[in-house]
């Protein structure tokens, strides 16, 4: 399956990827960052999957979400009849469940079901037994109970069965995860849960302010962002997957099932602008809990409950998506210094307040002050930057601009909302950073800002300069930077993050990567800010054309192979889809 052949279902605690072939190939339980019990996505059949499809049919005829929900409907038209498979995860259950309802639409269809559960990312072959209409699998800390309406037979590889579905009939499979020391969970009514799940999503979407020509794409992105929120704590993961490659067969494979402050802050900015101020407030509480401690110990990412240690490991029993190895879990970028994160967080708090979030309490503002103390001491250090380079630290222009944005946000909060200072110190910090970036980060000869002080490379992240108001859109230095980026950093009109052809010393990694979709949306947003609305709209609509059949986007795209690349679906990309739609309308 191509990455874009997958659709997402989820319960705001974890998520599954369902292929166009009717196979669930990725599911981590009970949390986004738990070990997967279906990991075929990153390996093969022996790493676990659950396929439910007409016997002998490879791919579905069509599929779509049911209206503004995360309920997936996959339709198969066969020579004997038409069948629909409805997949969803009820969002309000203590323990995760996954429901698959098979609905006969016309005629009769012979169906096949194959289930192979492999706990611990496809490694543990569980003990399985069939008891009174249930398949029970147990291994280590995990157990799964599947209520099956058809007789299953087991062999060394898993369980399988066949059945015929006629027009008007419904058969439901209910999969429930439970810690292995607990007894079988209470039964649930799948049809009742279908109604509740539909109402949950429709009610949530009804609070959105999305309107206009791109309303459906924006709403699908909002639903996706909500699906990536871990509801028990308010943390937001960057994506529900690990190690989907940034180039097929390459090594740029990372685990995104954590809460990056950068990605989460941007997500909250998009949600609060779209009317979801409550989500912004919940995330702010999550943030204050996660970062509680010394400001210099602030991490760029945390686990969904605020965990700090996320050690990177390689799962060498998995062959990787289309042989893209290594498969990694954990992320060593956790210990990097990325100064932009401070700016993202403080700017997000300021923006959320502007969009109606209640004033943060004195404790929250004291945290803001401490973060600013840290920035006053440390803003001039080199860092790893927002791209989390694994090469040497540099004075990234984007990082400095975002520290400027941090200072600008707190100065504005003092001026506009009457928060306590020290405002003079913050104003002076803002001025010093501005002067240094304009002096050391601008190449006057070429008329463009550069990736880092004194370098010749460009960087898509420089597009943030007019977005955060570091310089006005009509400043010639902005126009020069946009022009240079369009000239030197695009592939087929879409934006690369930075030059990665061949081995380079920017990120310390071999090989190139695809175009960065969030950056390409930035370009459209900046073109709109510059008044180049037709060009911006054309680029935006082209990017919308890259969404898959159910409106989802990964982190990157390969314009030559015409394939999505990287973790999927990625919050960062959907956030910038929303921002650009807002900028254009
Ligand atoms: O490609 C290098 C880096 O890729 C990942 O980082 C990227 O994803 C993050 C989450 O969406 C995002 O915040 C960051 O800006 C992106 O560069 C990966 O997590 C890193 O470990 C890796 O070095």
UniProtKB/TrEMBL annotation:
Name of a matching Pfam family: Glyco_hydro_15
Residue ranges crossing the lipid bilayer per the database entry: none
Record carries keyword tRNA-binding: no
Signal sequence coordinates: none
A GO molecular function held by the record: alpha,alpha-trehalase activity
EC number: 3.2.1.28
Similarity remark: Belongs to the glycosyl hydrolase 15 family.
Chain ranges of the GH15-like domain: 215-581
Trehalase-like N-terminal domain mapped to chain residues: 2-127
Gene Ontology process terms (BP): trehalose catabolic process
Keywords: Carbohydrate metabolism, Glycosidase, Hydrolase
Protein species of origin: Nonomuraea aridisoli
Cofactor(s) needed for function: phosphate
Enzyme class name: hydrolase
Pathway(s) of this molecule: Glycan degradation; trehalose degradation; D-glucose from alpha,alpha-trehalose: step 1/1
Catalysed reaction, written as an equation: alpha,alpha-trehalose + H2O = alpha-D-glucose + beta-D-glucose
Protein name: Trehalase
């Amino acid at each position: 399956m191509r990455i874009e052949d997958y659709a997402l279902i989820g319960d705001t605690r974890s998520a599954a990827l369902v292929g166009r072939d009717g196979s669930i190939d990725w599911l981590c339980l009970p949390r986004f960052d738990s070990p997967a019990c279906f990991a075929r996505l990153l390996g093969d059949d022996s790493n676990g999957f659950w396929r439910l499809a007409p016997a002998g049919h490879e791919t579905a005829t069509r599929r779509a979400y049911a209206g503004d929900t995360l309920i997936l409907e996959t339709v198969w038209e066969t020579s004997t009849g038409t069948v629909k498979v409805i997949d969803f995860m009820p969002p309000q259950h203590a323990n995760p469940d996954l429901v698959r309802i098979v609905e006969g639409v016309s005629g009769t269809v012979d169906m096949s079901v194959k289930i192979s559960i492999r706990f611990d990312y496809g490694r543990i072959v569980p003990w399985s037994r069939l008891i009174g209409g249930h398949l029970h699998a147990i291994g280590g800390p995990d157990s799964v109970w599947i209520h099956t309406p058809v007789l299953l037979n087991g062999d060394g590889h898993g369980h399988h069965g066949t059945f015929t579905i006629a027009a008007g009939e419904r058969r439901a499979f209910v999969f429930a995860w439970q810690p292995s020391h607990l007894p079988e969970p209470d039964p649930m009514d799948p049809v009742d849960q279908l109604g509740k799940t539909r109402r949950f999503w429709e009610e949530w979407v009804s609070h959105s302010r999305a309107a206009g020509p791109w309303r459906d794409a924006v709403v699908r992105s909002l639903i996706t962002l909500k699906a990536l929120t871990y509801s028990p704590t308010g943390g937001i993961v960057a994506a529900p997957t690990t190690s989907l490659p940034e180039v097929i067969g390459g090594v740029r494979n990372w685990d995104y099932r954590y809460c990056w402050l950068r990605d989460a802050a941007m997500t909250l900015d998009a949600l609060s602008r779209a009317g979801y101020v409550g989500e912004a407030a919940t995330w702010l509480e999550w943030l204050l809990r996660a970062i509680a401690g010394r400001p210099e110990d602030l991490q760029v990412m945390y686990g969904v409950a605020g965990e700090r240690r996320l050690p990177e490991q390689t799962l060498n029993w998995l062959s990787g998506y289309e042989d893209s190895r290594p498969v990694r879990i954990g992320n060593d970028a956790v210990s990097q210094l990325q100064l932009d994160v401070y700016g993202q967080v403080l700017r997000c708090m300021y923006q959320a307040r502007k969009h109606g979030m209640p004033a943060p309490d004195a404790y929250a503002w004291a945290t803001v002050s401490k973060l600013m103390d840290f920035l006053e001491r440390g803003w001039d250090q080199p860092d790893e930057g927002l791209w989390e380079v694994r090469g040497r630290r540099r004075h990234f222009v984007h990082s400095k601009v975002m520290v400027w944005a941090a200072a600008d946000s707190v100065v504005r909060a003092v001026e506009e909302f009457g928060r306590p200072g020290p405002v003079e110190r913050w104003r002076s910090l803002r001025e010093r950073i501005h002067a240094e970036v304009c002096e050391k980060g601008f190449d006057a000869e070429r008329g463009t800002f550069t990736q880092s002080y004194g370098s010749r490379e460009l960087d898509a992240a420089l597009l943030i300069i007019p977005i955060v108001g570091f310089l006005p859109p009509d400043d010639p230095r902005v126009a020069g930077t946009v022009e240079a980026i369009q000239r030197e950093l695009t592939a087929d009109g879409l934006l690369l993050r930075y030059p990665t052809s061949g081995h380079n010393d920017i990120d310390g990694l071999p090989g190139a990567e695809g175009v960065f979709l969030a950056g390409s949306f930035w370009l459209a947003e900046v073109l709109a800010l510059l008044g180049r609305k037709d060009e911006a709209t054309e680029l935006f609509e082209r990017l919308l054309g890259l969404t898959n059949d159910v409106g989802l986007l990964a982190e990157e795209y390969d314009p030559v192979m015409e394939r999505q690349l990287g973790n999927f679906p990625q919050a960062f990309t959907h956030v910038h889809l929303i921002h650009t739609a807002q900028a254009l309308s």
